[in-house]
Predict the structure.
Amino acid sequence: MSPVTLPSSDQIAAPEVADRLRGGEPPRWSDAQGLPLPEADSPWRRRDILRAGWIVGVGVVALTICWYGASGEPAWHDALPWLVGAILASVFAAIGLVSWLLAGFSAVRAQERAMLSEIATVLTPALAAMLGQETDAVLTTGLVTVAGSTKFHHGECQLVRGKPVTALVAEAISGRGLSACGVCHE
């Protein structure tokens, strides 16, 4: 079996995409649609950091107050309310940390989807040409379905790319009993 040689980005992509891939300008997915990379290479937006910081800060202050209150009580039953408060403060601070992590994971996932979509847009014509398959010249931008399918998709959905599709109108969706694609209609 002979090795497969992929064409360069200059050979397969439109000039503006090739410039982005070579580093001529930042990739579209790093700054489009308000994705959270405004200043640095960080998945967190300023508000995510501030929200998590305030929640954790309030939890730490409450924990410190509970510690100080419990330290002055000689009997354990007198310190018990302070212990309950300290546990609740710890849970509150942990919620702040979890919200910070979830915001970062969500932002990374959105960036990954955008990046993979752009890579697929660039590589699909090249791979189809190498395999000798025809590709659609224009991506459909409305709602579409594939013959025999029970789902409807956005025209840009990866699951219908390269397949013969039929354009839909809103009335046809309910009339044909189609349900939304789980990938492109999240």
Residues 59 and 88 are 8 Å apart (CA to CA).
